[in-house]
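Researcher: Next sequence.
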Amino acid sequence: MAVKKAKTAARKVKDKWKAKEWYKLYAPRMFNQVELGETPSSDPAALMGRVTEVTVHELTGDFSKMHIKIRFSVNDIRGLEAHTVFIGHDLTSDYVRRLTRRKRTKTDHVVDVRTKDGFKVRIKPMSITEQRIQAAQETAVRNIMTSTLNDQAANMTVSELVKAIITGDLSRDLSNAAKVIIPIKRIEIRKSEVLEVGTAAADEPSIQERFGQEAAEQAAAQAAMAPAEETTEAPAEEETPAEEESPAEETTEAPAEEETPAEEEEVSEEPSEAEENSEENTQ
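Model: Next structure:
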């Protein structure tokens, strides 16, 4: 009887994977709602709050940004589509280890900033100096980074802030501000976290669209500079015909040089007249 009960219990076990469905994950509007991947779930409610992580290379195709990882969290389910929101970013551990060297000082800092669209973001910058520095210098560098980050974030939306972190513009501004204290080797935004969600504009362009606009502006600027260079080079091209006329001037002067034999003939004729006069005198 015990054997029969075990067999019936084994028959009642169901495969949980057969009850699950695959949901497609999509990035938020700031990343142009690109597809991030798929995730299985038997209940749509179980997807809420699920975190996924992708690199910037997978989002934009830029190989130089493979060390930056973007984290998204699912906040909306539409059928078999799971839409996410940005919750932060992080650098790979091997990239951070590669930056640190002996006889240098790595200074970590934590700053909470608020963007102009109401997002509260915790930013964790990391500075690496050319040489070892004192504790007072580290404090001065931290104070400069705090003031710079607060000023920069107050004039940006969360999409612009994330773009500045990805492209390195924010790190460059921090480095320029902190180099008055001590020569800075490098400053990186090691990590960021969204603490409070604000209200992002629906018609705000995505980060990919901002990259496209910047590329179009650079192409237009280069196209505008090209005609200006052609106009400056135009007078130099007009001078070439004047140089070609120099052989023509030589040809016009050549006949003047050939007239010298005629003068010699006139000179040769003068003795003949003198001879005629001498002959008349003799007669």
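Model: The CA atoms of residues 117 and 157 lie 6 Å apart. The radius of gyration is 41 Å.
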